[in-house]
Specification:
single chain, 151 residues, mainly beta, six-stranded antiparallel β-sheet, globular
Length: 151
């Protein structure tokens, strides 16, 4: 057609295509992992003596990571924050989750919490049995202790 110019992608359309291609490339490189619970090698946490943890996937030094945590009843992970967003899923036990601007909430197996980056939060394992939780961070891991005021 004379004078016809094909439409060009808008900036938002072009930006939307980049994350999808990045995601697809990352998925192609992912080798996968299978970890029966009995094979998890927990290590004592350096900052919270009652907490045990094991890295399940990722590299916490420079990108996303997923951890499995185990804590006996009464264990408190005191107020802290991370630059990354954190997602928590309770597998066993009862976890009292507290975070800025939310009421304390008791999460049992299947319970879920998500804390935005720099959102102060703390967890306490309650009840008779140990708590087991998965936590995932969307970028490199860091931790700053205290309830403090964000950024």
């Amino acid at each position: 057609m004379v004078g016809y110019e094909p439409p060009t992608a808008t900036a938002s359309q072009a930006m939307a295509a980049v994350p999808l291609s990045t995601y697809i490339a990352a998925q192609e490189r992912m080798k996968g992992t299978l970890s029966p619970f009995a094979s998890v090698r927990f290590a004592q946490d350096a900052d919270v003596p009652c907490l045990l943890s094991a890295l399940e996937a990722g590299n916490p030094l420079n990108g996303p990571s997923t951890w499995i945590l185990k804590a006996p009843s009464g264990c408190v992970v005191p107020w802290h924050r991370h630059t990354a967003q954190e997602q928590l899923i309770v597998v066993a036990g009862d976890v009292n989750a507290e975070m800025t601007d939310h009421p304390p909430t008791l999460l049992g197996p299947g319970g879920f919490a998500v804390m935005g980056g720099d959102m102060a939060h703390q967890f306490t394992c309650q009840g008779r049995e140990a708590c087991v939780m998965f936590v995932a961070f969307d970028r490199a891991y860091d931790i700053r202790w205290g309830k403090g005021s964000g950024r």
